[in-house]
Write a structure and sequence with these properties.
Strand order of the largest sheet: 3-4-5-6-7-8-9-10-11-12-13-14
Number of strands: 14
Strand content: 15-25%
Distance between the termini: 66 Å
Order of helices and strands: EHHEHHEEEHHEHEHHHEHEHEHEEEEH
Largest sheet: 12 strands, mixed
Number of helices: 14
Mean pLDDT: 93
Helix content: 25-40%
C-alpha cells in the first residue's frame, strides 16, 4: 500500500463526506493553519464520532482559532546558530531538515513552519554539519523538522552518513511521527532500512523518536514497521504531549504506555502541551496533567512508566516531579544554562496554570523558591 496524501478540505470531503457546515468551518481554519493527512491515517478515524481522538489529532477544528499563544513558545529562534541549526544544550545539536510532515498535527508546537513564508529549514546542510563538526561537545544530533522521513532516502541517507562520520557524534536521533501517520514509508522502502542498518552500530545507535499520541495509532502494520526498524538496529522510543480530548484520560494513557512497552517501544517523554498559537484547545492544566499521568501509571509495569513529565520551556526542560494540596515541585531536567541543571523549585499550587510562566509570574522573583520550613523528624512505630 502507498497512502495517498490529502492537503485540501475538498479532497477530504471527497474521501469521507463532510456536511456543508463542517466543510466551511474547516476551510476557514486552513486559511491560517494548513491541513495534511493521508488515506491510511484517515481510515483509522470513526467518522460517526465527532469527538474521535484521531480526528482531533489531524482534522481542522474551529477551536484552533481561539486567540492566544505564541508562534515560538520555546524561543527556538534564540538558539538558532544558522538557518536550520539549533544549539540550545551543549551536547545536543538540532537539524531542521524539512517543513513537510506525514500529517500536520493540529497541536504542532512548530506550526509556524507551515504558516510562514520565511523558511527555517535547510535542504543543503553542509554548513550546519560543519558547525557540528567544529563543536566537539555535541555528542548527539536530532534531525527533525517537519518529518525527516518525508525526504527521499538518498538525501536523508547522505545527511545521516555525514553525521556518522563525525567521531564525536555518538547518537543520531530522528524525530518522526511516520510510524503513526504512514508506516508503509518504512515497510515499502528496503533502501531506507539498509541505510539505517549500516549507520546504526552497536557502539553508536540511531534512535527513532516516535510520536504516538493514542493507542489506536498502534496498528498491526505500525508494529510491523517498528519491528523492521528494530531489526535494522534502530532503537524506537516514544514521546507525546498530554492533549485535551485525545489522551487526557488515565485509561487512555495506560493503554498507550502498555501497548508501547509490549511492543518494545520505550516511553521517553510525556510533554505538557506547549502554548503555541492555536493550541489553547488542546492544553490541559499542568497539575491536572500530572495527576492524569500518575493515575495512568497505577496499573503499568516499570517498563511502561519510564517517561518523564516535561515542559519544553524557553529556558530548558522542566520536569514536574510532585505536588501536594498546596505546592508543586519542579526541577530543571535540562537547561540552556548548565548551572541550572538539577535546580529544584517549589511553587504554590495554581490549578489553572498551563505553563511554567503561570507559576513564575506569581512569584516575588521568577523561579525563586518559596520558603519551606524544615520538617520535624517523626518516628513511626
Amino acid at each position: 500500500m502507498n497512502p495517498k496524501y490529502i492537503t485540501s478540505i475538498s479532497e477530504l470531503d471527497n474521501l469521507v463526506g463532510l456536511t456543508p457546515k463542517a466543510r466551511e468551518m474547516m476551510e476557514t481554519v486552513t486559511e491560517l493553519f494548513p491541513f495534511r493527512a493521508n488515506d491510511y491515517y484517515l481510515s483509522l478515524i470513526d467518522w460517526k464520532d465527532g469527538h474521535d481522538p484521531l480526528r482531533r489529532i489531524v482534522v481542522p477544528d474551529s477551536c484552533e482559532l481561539k486567540t492566544g499563544g505564541s508562534a515560538d513558545p520555546s524561543c527556538e529562534k534564540d538558539y538558532t546558530k544558522k538557518p536550520g541549526l539549533q544549539h540550545k544544550y551543549g551536547q545536543t545539536g538540532v537539524l531542521l531538515l524539512t517543513d513537510v510532515c506525514g500529517g500536520i498535527c493540529r497541536f504542532c508546537f512548530r506550526k509556524r513552519l507551515f504558516m510562514s513564508c520565511e523558511r527555517e529549514t535547510m535542504r543543503d546542510v553542509s554548513e550546519n554539519i560543519g558547525y557540528i563538526r567544529e563543536h566537539k561537545e555535541i555528542t548527539n544530533v536530532l534531525v527533525t523538522g517537519g518529518d525527516p522521513l518525508t525526504l527521499e532516502t538518498r538525501h536523508l541517507g547522505k545527511i545521516l552518513r555525514e553525521l556518522r562520520e563525525i567521531e564525536h557524534v555518538n547518537i543520531i536521533r530522528i524525530g518522526s511521527k511516520m510510524l503513526a501517520y504512514n508506516p508503509y514509508r518504512i515497510l515499502n522502502d528496503p533502501n531506507l532500512l539498509d541505510v539505517l542498518s549500516r549507520l546504526s552500530t552497536p557502539e553508536k545507535r540511531i534512535y527513532l523518536m516516535a510520536h504516538f499520541n493514542h493507542p489506536r495509532e498502534l496498528t498491526e502494520v505500525t508494529i510491523q514497521a517498528a519491528e523492521a526498524l528494530r531489526k535494522a538496529g534502530v532503537i524506537v522510543v516514544n514521546q507525546t504531549p498530554i492533549l485535551n480530548g485525545i489522551n487526557n484520560e488515565p485509561e487512555t494513557l495506560t493503554m498507550l504506555f502498555r501497548r508501547l512497552s509490549f511492543a518494545g517501544i520505550s516511553p521517553y517523554y510525556v510533554f505538557q502541551c506547549r502554548p503555541t498559537i492555536g493550541n489553547q484547545f488542546f492544553q490541559v492544566p499542568l497539575e491536572q496533567s500530572y495527576e492524569v499521568l500518575q493515575k495512568s501509571w497505577e496499573t503499568c509495569s516499570g517498563l511502561a512508566k519510564r517517561a518523564r513529565f516535561i515542559m519544553s520551556h524557553a529556558t530548558g526542560k522542566i520536569e514536574m516531579v510532585g505536588k501536594t494540596a498546596g505546592h508543586v515541585f519542579m526541577r530543571y531536567h535540562q537547561s540552556a544554562d548548565p548551572a541550572q541543571i538539577g535546580k529544584f523549585m517549589i511553587f504554590q499550587s495554581n490549578p489553572v496554570a498551563r505553563w511554567f510562566d503561570d507559576y513564575r509570574h506569581h512569584s516575588t522573583e521568577p523561579g525563586d523558591l518559596l520558603p519551606v520550613k524544615k520538617p520535624k523528624m517523626q518516628w513511626l512505630f
